[in-house]
Amino acid sequence: MNLLEGRKYNIITFGCQMNEHDSETISGMLQEKGCREVLTKEESDITVINTCSIRENADKRFFGTLGQLKKIKEKNPQYIACVCGCMMQQQHIIDTVKKKYPWVDIIFGTHNIDRFPQLLEKVACEKQKIFEIMEDRQDIVENLPAKRLFRHKAFVNIMYGCNNFCTYCIVPYTRGREKNRHPEDILDEVRGLVGDGVNEVTLLGQNVNSYRGRGKKAEDTDTVCDFADLIYMLNDVEGLERIRFMTSHPKDLSDKLIQAYVDCDKLCNYIHLPVQSGSDSILQAMNRKYSREHYLELVRKLTEAVPGITVSTDIIVGFPGETEADFEETLSLVKQVKYDSAFTFLYSIRKGTPAAEYDDQIPESIKHERFNRLVDAVNEASAHNNAAYVGRIEKVLVDGRSKRKDNTLTGRTEGFKLVDFPGDDSLIGQIVNIEITEGKTFSLFGKVVQRHAAF
Ligand code: SF4
Question: Least C-beta-crowded within 10 Å: which of 75, 204, 306, 336?
Answer without folding.
Answer: 75
